[in-house]
Design goal:
Blueprint: H1 2-28, E1 35-41, E2 56-62, H2 74-77, E3 81-82, E4 97-98, E5 108-117, E6 128-134, E7 140-153, E8 177-182, H3 185-196, E9 200-205, E10 214-221
Length: 227
Protein backbone atom coordinates (compact mmCIF):
# COMPACT_ATOMS: atom_id res chain seq x y z
CA UNK A 1 0.00 0.00 0.00
CA UNK A 2 2.81 2.35 0.86
CA UNK A 3 4.44 1.67 -2.49
CA UNK A 4 1.22 2.46 -4.37
CA UNK A 5 0.88 5.72 -2.48
CA UNK A 6 4.38 6.76 -3.44
CA UNK A 7 3.73 5.86 -7.06
CA UNK A 8 0.52 7.85 -7.10
CA UNK A 9 2.26 10.88 -5.63
CA UNK A 10 5.07 10.60 -8.14
CA UNK A 11 2.59 10.31 -11.00
CA UNK A 12 0.62 13.29 -9.74
CA UNK A 13 3.82 15.28 -9.52
CA UNK A 14 4.70 14.38 -13.10
CA UNK A 15 1.28 15.42 -14.38
CA UNK A 16 1.46 18.68 -12.45
CA UNK A 17 4.90 19.40 -13.82
CA UNK A 18 3.70 18.57 -17.31
CA UNK A 19 0.74 20.88 -16.89
CA UNK A 20 2.99 23.68 -15.72
CA UNK A 21 5.36 23.14 -18.65
CA UNK A 22 2.44 23.20 -21.08
CA UNK A 23 1.12 26.42 -19.58
CA UNK A 24 4.51 28.10 -19.81
CA UNK A 25 5.25 27.03 -23.38
CA UNK A 26 1.81 27.88 -24.73
CA UNK A 27 1.92 31.26 -23.02
CA UNK A 28 5.31 31.99 -24.55
CA UNK A 29 3.86 31.44 -28.02
CA UNK A 30 0.88 33.68 -27.41
CA UNK A 31 0.77 36.42 -30.06
CA UNK A 32 2.09 39.69 -28.69
CA UNK A 33 1.45 42.94 -30.56
CA UNK A 34 4.73 44.70 -31.30
CA UNK A 35 4.70 48.47 -31.03
CA UNK A 36 7.19 51.09 -32.18
CA UNK A 37 7.74 54.83 -31.83
CA UNK A 38 6.16 57.19 -34.33
CA UNK A 39 6.16 60.97 -34.52
CA UNK A 40 2.69 62.44 -35.09
CA UNK A 41 1.18 65.89 -35.43
CA UNK A 42 0.14 67.34 -32.07
CA UNK A 43 -2.25 69.72 -33.81
CA UNK A 44 -3.46 70.45 -37.36
CA UNK A 45 -0.51 71.55 -39.51
CA UNK A 46 -1.06 73.45 -42.80
CA UNK A 47 0.91 72.43 -45.90
CA UNK A 48 4.17 74.33 -46.24
CA UNK A 49 4.65 74.76 -42.49
CA UNK A 50 8.19 74.45 -41.15
CA UNK A 51 7.97 72.01 -38.26
CA UNK A 52 8.81 72.94 -34.68
CA UNK A 53 9.11 70.56 -31.74
CA UNK A 54 5.95 71.98 -30.13
CA UNK A 55 3.90 70.88 -33.15
CA UNK A 56 4.84 67.21 -32.72
CA UNK A 57 4.71 64.39 -30.22
CA UNK A 58 5.86 60.78 -30.08
CA UNK A 59 3.47 57.87 -29.53
CA UNK A 60 3.68 54.07 -29.64
CA UNK A 61 1.74 52.47 -32.49
CA UNK A 62 1.32 48.85 -33.62
CA UNK A 63 4.06 47.81 -36.02
CA UNK A 64 1.38 46.37 -38.32
CA UNK A 65 0.01 49.84 -39.12
CA UNK A 66 3.33 51.67 -39.26
CA UNK A 67 4.42 52.94 -42.69
CA UNK A 68 7.93 52.28 -43.94
CA UNK A 69 9.04 55.91 -44.00
CA UNK A 70 7.51 56.92 -40.65
CA UNK A 71 9.66 59.38 -38.70
CA UNK A 72 10.56 58.00 -35.26
CA UNK A 73 12.43 60.96 -33.78
CA UNK A 74 11.12 64.52 -33.40
CA UNK A 75 14.68 65.76 -33.94
CA UNK A 76 14.61 64.32 -37.48
CA UNK A 77 11.50 66.33 -38.38
CA UNK A 78 12.17 69.72 -36.77
CA UNK A 79 13.21 72.39 -39.26
CA UNK A 80 11.73 70.59 -42.27
CA UNK A 81 8.61 71.66 -44.14
CA UNK A 82 5.54 69.48 -44.62
CA UNK A 83 4.40 69.19 -48.22
CA UNK A 84 0.78 68.33 -47.41
CA UNK A 85 -1.70 69.34 -44.72
CA UNK A 86 -1.59 67.15 -41.62
CA UNK A 87 -4.38 66.26 -39.21
CA UNK A 88 -4.01 65.72 -35.46
CA UNK A 89 -2.25 62.41 -34.68
CA UNK A 90 -1.35 61.84 -38.33
CA UNK A 91 2.08 60.13 -38.54
CA UNK A 92 4.90 62.22 -39.95
CA UNK A 93 6.38 60.57 -43.05
CA UNK A 94 9.86 61.31 -44.37
CA UNK A 95 8.53 61.30 -47.94
CA UNK A 96 6.26 64.23 -47.09
CA UNK A 97 8.97 66.38 -45.58
CA UNK A 98 11.26 68.74 -47.42
CA UNK A 99 14.52 70.32 -46.38
CA UNK A 100 14.06 72.88 -49.16
CA UNK A 101 12.22 76.16 -48.54
CA UNK A 102 8.52 75.70 -47.88
CA UNK A 103 6.09 76.18 -50.74
CA UNK A 104 4.11 79.42 -50.87
CA UNK A 105 0.73 79.23 -49.17
CA UNK A 106 -1.14 79.40 -52.50
CA UNK A 107 0.81 76.47 -53.99
CA UNK A 108 -0.60 72.97 -54.33
CA UNK A 109 0.93 69.50 -54.48
CA UNK A 110 -0.16 67.35 -57.42
CA UNK A 111 0.55 63.64 -57.86
CA UNK A 112 0.70 62.27 -61.39
CA UNK A 113 0.61 58.58 -62.26
CA UNK A 114 3.41 57.59 -64.65
CA UNK A 115 2.52 55.31 -67.57
CA UNK A 116 5.79 55.41 -69.52
CA UNK A 117 9.41 56.31 -68.84
CA UNK A 118 11.87 56.96 -71.66
CA UNK A 119 14.74 54.47 -71.56
CA UNK A 120 17.91 55.83 -69.98
CA UNK A 121 16.22 58.66 -68.11
CA UNK A 122 15.57 59.24 -64.43
CA UNK A 123 13.78 61.64 -62.14
CA UNK A 124 14.34 62.45 -58.49
CA UNK A 125 13.19 64.98 -55.88
CA UNK A 126 14.57 68.44 -56.63
CA UNK A 127 14.55 68.02 -60.42
CA UNK A 128 12.87 70.79 -62.39
CA UNK A 129 10.31 69.73 -65.00
CA UNK A 130 7.90 71.21 -67.53
CA UNK A 131 4.41 69.75 -67.84
CA UNK A 132 3.40 69.51 -71.49
CA UNK A 133 0.07 68.62 -73.11
CA UNK A 134 -0.21 67.11 -76.60
CA UNK A 135 -3.45 66.39 -78.43
CA UNK A 136 -4.09 63.83 -81.14
CA UNK A 137 -4.65 66.68 -83.58
CA UNK A 138 -0.96 67.45 -83.28
CA UNK A 139 -0.99 70.68 -81.31
CA UNK A 140 0.86 70.88 -78.01
CA UNK A 141 1.41 73.47 -75.32
CA UNK A 142 3.19 73.99 -72.02
CA UNK A 143 0.81 73.72 -69.07
CA UNK A 144 3.40 74.52 -66.43
CA UNK A 145 7.04 75.50 -66.85
CA UNK A 146 9.85 75.01 -64.38
CA UNK A 147 8.03 73.25 -61.55
CA UNK A 148 9.91 71.17 -59.00
CA UNK A 149 9.62 67.44 -58.32
CA UNK A 150 8.84 66.89 -54.64
CA UNK A 151 8.78 63.10 -54.43
CA UNK A 152 8.88 59.97 -56.59
CA UNK A 153 7.05 56.77 -55.62
CA UNK A 154 7.28 53.19 -56.89
CA UNK A 155 4.49 50.78 -57.80
CA UNK A 156 3.97 49.74 -54.17
CA UNK A 157 3.65 53.34 -53.04
CA UNK A 158 7.08 53.48 -51.44
CA UNK A 159 9.29 56.52 -51.87
CA UNK A 160 12.13 55.76 -54.29
CA UNK A 161 14.39 58.19 -52.42
CA UNK A 162 15.17 58.63 -48.75
CA UNK A 163 14.84 61.94 -46.92
CA UNK A 164 18.51 62.77 -47.60
CA UNK A 165 18.03 62.24 -51.35
CA UNK A 166 19.81 58.89 -51.62
CA UNK A 167 18.02 56.07 -53.49
CA UNK A 168 15.87 53.74 -51.44
CA UNK A 169 17.21 50.38 -52.63
CA UNK A 170 14.29 48.47 -51.14
CA UNK A 171 11.72 50.45 -53.15
CA UNK A 172 13.03 49.64 -56.64
CA UNK A 173 13.93 51.96 -59.49
CA UNK A 174 10.83 52.40 -61.66
CA UNK A 175 8.69 55.45 -60.86
CA UNK A 176 4.92 54.99 -60.74
CA UNK A 177 3.87 58.33 -59.25
CA UNK A 178 5.59 61.71 -59.43
CA UNK A 179 4.65 64.42 -56.95
CA UNK A 180 5.10 67.98 -58.24
CA UNK A 181 4.43 71.47 -56.94
CA UNK A 182 1.97 73.68 -58.82
CA UNK A 183 1.71 77.42 -58.13
CA UNK A 184 -2.03 77.60 -57.52
CA UNK A 185 -5.29 75.70 -57.31
CA UNK A 186 -6.31 77.16 -60.67
CA UNK A 187 -3.23 75.66 -62.32
CA UNK A 188 -3.93 72.26 -60.76
CA UNK A 189 -7.51 72.37 -62.02
CA UNK A 190 -6.35 73.33 -65.51
CA UNK A 191 -3.94 70.38 -65.63
CA UNK A 192 -6.65 68.02 -64.42
CA UNK A 193 -9.15 69.34 -66.98
CA UNK A 194 -6.61 68.92 -69.78
CA UNK A 195 -5.91 65.33 -68.74
CA UNK A 196 -9.61 64.53 -68.61
CA UNK A 197 -10.03 65.90 -72.15
CA UNK A 198 -7.83 63.10 -73.48
CA UNK A 199 -4.61 65.03 -74.03
CA UNK A 200 -1.29 63.24 -73.47
CA UNK A 201 0.59 64.77 -70.56
CA UNK A 202 4.38 64.61 -70.46
CA UNK A 203 6.93 65.62 -67.85
CA UNK A 204 10.12 66.93 -69.45
CA UNK A 205 12.93 67.71 -67.04
CA UNK A 206 16.35 69.26 -66.87
CA UNK A 207 17.92 67.01 -64.24
CA UNK A 208 18.77 69.48 -61.50
CA UNK A 209 20.94 66.83 -59.86
CA UNK A 210 22.98 66.14 -62.99
CA UNK A 211 20.75 63.29 -64.16
CA UNK A 212 19.88 62.86 -67.86
CA UNK A 213 17.00 64.74 -69.46
CA UNK A 214 13.80 63.22 -68.15
CA UNK A 215 10.77 62.41 -70.28
CA UNK A 216 7.68 60.76 -68.82
CA UNK A 217 4.10 60.19 -69.84
CA UNK A 218 1.57 60.90 -67.11
CA UNK A 219 -1.57 58.83 -67.45
CA UNK A 220 -3.79 60.47 -64.85
CA UNK A 221 -3.83 62.44 -61.68
CA UNK A 222 -3.03 60.10 -58.81
CA UNK A 223 -5.20 60.30 -55.71
CA UNK A 224 -3.90 58.57 -52.60
CA UNK A 225 -6.49 56.39 -50.92
CA UNK A 226 -6.92 56.90 -47.21
CA UNK A 227 -6.87 53.70 -45.34
Amino acid sequence: MQIRKVLRMALAGTVAAGGFYYAVTTDSYREVEIRKDAVVAARPIPAGTTLEASMLRTIRIPESVSVGDAVVSIHDAVGKAVRVEMAVNEPVRASRLSSTPALPAESRVMRLGVTMVTVGTSVRPGDVVDILAARKEGDSRVLLKGTRVLAVYGKEGRNLFQADGTPNKEAGLTPAVVEVAVPSLETALEIRKTMQSGAEISLVGYGAHGSPVTVMEAGAEHTEQEG
